[in-house]
Every structure is written in C-alpha cells, then in structure tokens.
Design a protein that fits this description.
CATH superfamily of chain B: NADH:ubiquinone oxidoreductase-like, 20kDa subunit
Shape of chain B: globular
Distance between the termini of chain A: 59 Å
CATH class of chain B: Alpha Beta
Helix content of chain B: 25-40%
Strand order of the largest sheet of chain A: 6-12-11-17-14-15
Order of helices and strands of chain B: EHHEEEHEHHEEH
CATH topology of chain B: Rossmann fold
Structural class of chain A: alpha/beta
Distance between the termini of chain B: 45 Å
Oligomer: heterodimer
CATH superfamily of the largest domain in chain A: NADH-ubiquinone oxidoreductase 51kDa subunit
Number of strands of chain B: 7
Largest interface: A-B, 23 and 27 residues
Structural class of chain B: alpha/beta
Number of domains of chain B: 1
Strand content of chain B: 15-25%
Largest sheet of chain A: 6 strands, mixed
Strand order of the largest sheet of chain B: 2-1-3-5-7
Number of domains of chain A: 4
Number of helices of chain B: 6
Shape of chain A: globular
Chain lengths: ~600, ~180
Amino acid sequence: MDENLQAEVKQICQVCGNDRTKMMDIVRAVQEKFGQVSSETMNLIAKFVNCHRVEVESVVSFYAFLSKKPKGKVVIRLCNDVVDKMAGADVVADAFKKELGIDFGQTTADGKITLEYTPCIGMCDQAPAAIINDEVITYLSTDKVKEIVADIKKHYDPSKLKHRLGDGNNANEIVHSCVHNGIRKKGTVIFADYKSKSGLKNALAVSPVEVINIVKSARLRGRGGAGFPTGMKWQFTRAAAGEKKFILCNGDEGEPGTFKDRVILTERADMLFEGMTIGGYAIGAEAGILYLRAEYAYLRKLLEKVLKDRRDKNLLGKNILGKKDFNFDIIIQMGAGAYICGEETALISSCEGLRGDPKNRPPFPAQKGYLGNPTAVNNVETLCCVTRILEMGAGWFVESGSKGSPGTKLLSISGDCKLPGVYEFPFGIKVRDMLKEVGAEDTQAVLIGGPSGQIIGQNDFNRTICYDDLATGGAIVVFGQERNVIKIAAEYMEFFIEESCGYCTPCRVGNVLLKKYLDKIIAGKGEPEDLDILKQLGESIKTTSRCGMGQTSPNPVLTTLKNFRKNYESIVKKTTNGMQPTFDIRKALADAESIAKRQSVIFIK
Amino acid sequence: MMTKPKVATASLAGCFGCHMSLLDIDERILKLIELVDFDKSPIDDIKEFTGRCAIGLIEGGCANEDNVHVLQEFRKHCDILIAVGDCAIMGDIPAMRNNIPLKECLEEAYLNGPTVYNPEKIIPNDKELPLCLNRVYPCHEVVKIDYSLPGCPPNADIIWQALVALLTGKPLELPYELIKYD
C-alpha cells in the first residue's frame, strides 16, 4: 500500500477527530485531495474512524460531487436545468464537447478535465451557468467556452479563470466571483438596511420563551415552502426532552429555479447568523449548523469570515453580549451535491455523516433530530425574518403581507422574462402583477414553487402568492407561449428520477414510469387512457412515498394535466388495432439482424 | 344449438408450465369443452386460426420475432386476450438476459459457456430460425392485453375460475388462497 496515501488519509481523518459523524468532511477532503475516493482509500477511512467500509462507500456512492473513480483535476459541471436549456445550455454543451474532445461523463485522455452535467446550481437568473471545481461561471456562450477551455488548459486551476466580478460581496476578494446578486426589488424585511446585533440584543433582553412568543405573534411561517409556523417548531424543540439541542439552517436550496438563498448568503449572512443565534437562545441550543450546498462552496470563505467577525464581537461564543450562560456557536457543514438533502430529515442524515436518506417521522426532528437530539431545522430566509422581527417587533411584521401570511417573500424569478432576479414582495401579490413587474409578456405558464410546486396557466394568474393560495419556497419560472409544457414536465421528471434517494419504490420506480408515459405522449404515441394512468400513478406516488420529495415529485405531471389538459388531449389519439404503438419491431430486431447478417422474413422492411 | 365460443392458446417464451397448469383443471376439462371449442392451440395442435375467438390465453413473453408474430395474430383474432403467468406478464426468467447484449448471450450459450461443446464454433443461424429480439418483452409491451393471471404458473383453479367467469358472464371469484404466492 502507498504509505504516502495512508499518511494523508490518516491526517485528514485526524483533523476530523476520527469521528465517523464527520464523514462528509472526511470524504470531501479526500475527494478534493485525490480527485476520487478510491476503494483503497475507503478501507483506510473505515480503519481510521473505526466504522464499516460500507458506511464510507454508502456516502461516497450517494453524493454527486464524490466519486469512487478518478475525476480530472478540473471538473466542469454544466447546469442542465430547464431554465439553462431555455437559455441555450445545449449549444454550450456542444461547445464544451467540441473544445474538450470528450462527451459528458468523460474525462480527457490526460486525466485532467472531467465534463459532467449537474442539476440546478442556483444561477437561473444568469443562465447558462457551470461550476468548474468551486468556481461558478455564468452567462456562458460558445465563445466563452472556447476562452475558458483554452485558459484552463494553461494552468488547470479554475480559480485563475479571468472574469468580470459580480456586484456586492461577489466582488469581495475572498469571494471573487462573477455571480451577480440580481436583487431587483428590495422589501422591508430582508433587503432593507440592517444593523448587526439589534435583533439579538432585543432577544437577549427577554426570556427565551418570550422570544418564541414574539415569533409566534408575528405569525412567522417557514420560508422553505412548507410554511410550518416557526414559533411552534421552536416551542416543540425547546419543550422536547434532551440536554443538547441544535438549530440547523437549511442552506441546501436545490429546488430548480431557486436562488434567493444565494443572495441572502452573499449579502445578509450576518443577519442569518444572528437569526440562528436568536433561535439557539430560544430553543436552548449551544450549537448551530449551517448546511451549505456544495454548489455554493464559493461563498464558504465569506461565511467563515462573517462567523469570525461575529465571534470577535462576542455575538457568538461564550456569554454572548454579556448574557451569562448563553453560549452559542455555528459551524458550516458542506453538502456534496444532493437535492434530497434539502428535505430536513435527509439534511440531518447528511450532517451526521450518512447518506442523505430521509428518516421516518415520527419522531420529528424537534423531538429527535441531529444525533438523536431535539433539533430545529429552519430555512435561510426564515431565520433572517426572525432577526428582523426581533429588531422591529411582531406588530411591525404583521403589518406587511397578507392576513394569513405576514411579511415579505423572496422570489427567485427566471425564465421567459426581461428582468430575472430576486424580488422581495409582500405576501399576497397577484401572479399577474408579479409577471408585469418582471417584464414577462405573453406568458403561457408559470412554475410556482419549483417542480415540486405547481405549473399554472393563465386561468390562475389572478391568484395570489401566499400560504393560503399559491405557497412557494420562492422558485418562480416563467414560460412563454412557444414553450411545450409537456416537455417541461418531462424534463422536471428527469430531474426527480436522478435525485430520488431510491429508498422507497413509489418514488424510485413511479417517477420513471411517469416519465416513460410522458415520453410516449411527446413522441405522438400517447393514447387517451394514458392520461388517466398518469393521474392515478402520480397520485399513488404522492400518497405512498415516505418523504416530501416523493410526495411532491409527480406535481409537474399532475398540475400540467390539470391546467394544460388541452395540450395533452390534442396530441393523444386512440389506437384501434390492439397493437402497442410504442413497440418498435425494427428496433427490437436490429441487433439480431446485424449479428445474423440476414433480414427478418416475417417482418419485411 | 348455439355455436360455442372459441378459445385459443399459445406458449411464447415460456416453459409450457402454464399450459400444464391449464391441464391441471383435471376432470373439469370435460366441463370446459362443453362451454367452449378450442381453436389454435398446442393442446389440439391446430396450427392456424379457423375464425374469430372469444378468448386467447398467452403463456410466455416475446423473445423472438415469431413470438411477436403469434402474439399479434392472437390480438387480431381474439376478443379478449389474457396474459397467463409471470413470463407473459413481465418477461420473468427469460428476461434475465435483458441486461446483457444479445451478442454476448449468444456467445455464452453457443461458444463460451462452461458446458458448451461446439468444436466448429458455430452460432446457429439457419434462415428457418426466428431472429431473437434485443430483449425479452412482456406481452403488454407488444399488444394490448385485457387481463393478467399472475403466478408461476397460475394455479389451475385461477385459470378455471377466470375462464368460467368470462364465458358465463358471472363475477370472478378469486379467494385469497388462490392468489397468494408466499
């Protein structure tokens, strides 16, 4: 065995305290160092952290950014989200193939550059985009691809890629990114000016229970999409039996079309960490974890700096702001490319160093979460709202927004509109008004809440965005008249197929079947009864899946079936001869005809 | 006297086990031929359809072009087509080759397999031999199937109950014992 390898792996494990719950950090470090987590390395890790090898391999095989096989020194991951494709990602993909002389999923012969696809990386407002190692490159074009590939071949160091810097903190030298914030509309809660510690100071002036009561009377609901009342969640977590408690921030925004947390993490990290600290105080936690999706690794140094600044100012650490016995600190847990980890129990699994498998509920995280301890998992935006509520008061907060949904909502809007970006609207805005504001004309369909939400048509444009009508975590994608909604639904199903953790059959198999039927319909071979099958199957998947993913993954199909029924009906037709239109005898016989070197005499061409 | 409805049967990529199971209805076969006439079937060795049939029973999935041809003929001639047994319904054991390219399957069977004796290294390729399909297809992927009777093979009583129910227009009774497989 290579002694050097052994020493390096030993070192990596030691830094992580030889702690198997730090498996994500260990395998990420190994991947970064060696471009793979080889079979041999997995044995070493298992030995050093004293676990079974399968525990290592199950993690490595699960996450998209980890690999058993060697990857190039430079890994180019082109986003193939629907919005990126609408912006020309396919042409960009061809350009990459041509310039590198390889196909997607391959590595150049010299082993230096790997080309891959990746689902939504949170850059829909500046699509097409790619991540090259940790560097995000936006607004790709065929010319830009040429430049990038030529540049990379000079130094094989993506951090040296020259690009114009983005605005705000993106231009900060520790971020040094070409990403643009794209803040189009500032509201009163998130993007209004904020003075560090004013919320926390007010929180620490009252008891933790009172903090929870303030959040409750602000009627704050989770901004991730599910809309669970935050105060209630905290109350449960505080009341749950257990000495150690945790607050986790879900920074794994992976819902295709969402990028609002990207902007919060770039421009409002301080406010976010303050919200986590307030939450920690309220529930009685001493530790918080920000789970950061791997795609946002370029923001990590900035976030670490904000944390350090807060420690220096005694806004984190021991006896915070002089409050005796209030100790709280935050660590960042990096993800490794898995949509499912945005589901709160899967996120907890990932933090524990496991595959991102969702857990059974009950027990809910508030009772038994991270490492079996009571845990509150909150969305990035929710925690920022908390900070503002504690600063301005619950009464101020409920004045904006609608009755059942006080406050504002960040919407990440992209697709067929003139002004894609992040908008902070008060809850209760009509879809029609929102479309007007983003410069969307002649809109056929709007995806509200990402593919796990719903695709609505013009009949619903007078509806409002709020928890009681169109609830959303913030992903809005606009589709113009020329788009094919059935194809869009099929593309989103492809995404869910890719991202299913595979644990339960309805989601693992059912989504594949839904996609098959959609493909059949798109190919013009669909029959009217297929629409009923789609509906039944979609509903079965929703009813019988274990976690939120399977419970929502059929939505692109079910909502387009409901809202764009005519589009489906116009392309399905009844067959009368009893044959399956999808069976292709020529394709079925092609192999045999070529092997036997003779043509079929039964099915003559 | 009214003419009796006709029943046809075929065994495609199956083992004839389902047909054996059909014969396992024992003395009830006498009652069956009071109800129906058998048309194209290996049971009576009628090779070609003599006319329209009420029911077609299909054993096995489609592994080669002849299977497809026979199945399509059945669909054309039968009012109701029943996939009998797991091979017809989902390909089953013959479909275990589906993840292996056809060429590799043929080479394993005729050249490389540990028990193969084939000094001339010939893979059979007479023009009378039907060409294999790229994979084994369950019947419903080739033609529309009206009913499926699961089992490997389906119990004789299931086949009997299903046929009688269809032929007499009475509701089908399948007690739990007949359709449990563990």
